User: What shape does this take?
Amino acid sequence: MRDILQSFLDNGLLQFGSFAGVPYQWNLEYLPSYPLVLEQLAELAAAKLYAVDHLVCTAYALPFATALSLKSHIPLVYGNGAGGSGKPAIVGAYDIGHPAVLVMDKLTDEQALLDFINYAAVVGLEVQQVIIIVQLWPPARIDIHIDALLDMHEVITELYAHNQITPFQYEAVQRWLISHRPDSAAP
Assistant: This one.
């Protein structure tokens, strides 16, 4: 994890400071600009994949999911957010009854994740696993296996242990995570 975190810090994919009241910022939308980091993430994720027929992803995770598809040779379909009634349209070649892995960049909204899983099921993609680059809190209401490549609590603990963030930054992130933890995920 240390090497990937160093890459994130060196390339500004993870920053610490004050971002609209949040003491850190993930810039995962910049991943395509750093193909070596994207490749590292795809290798980590590929090692966690179950036997599935398809990858399905949200629009935000498309670069990461494409890299994972290329690495694993598993076909990819994606939600482009252009469906009716606020639902994403699933784009790509698939038919009913395919076991799938949902690929996401970060998990911040458990209800949005549940909604996407349910919509994928409606069109015939049976999400059996979720792979996420960054997880802030473990989800409380999801009974599908979730693999987070990076857990925010572990990230800041690792960075603090190696003097890559200050005690002030570590405490600020800890306080923010505790104060913003969804009620449904409380211990």
About this structure: The first helix runs from residue 2 to 10. Residues 3 and 40 are 9 Å apart (CA to CA). The chain has six helices and eight strands. The mean pLDDT is 89.
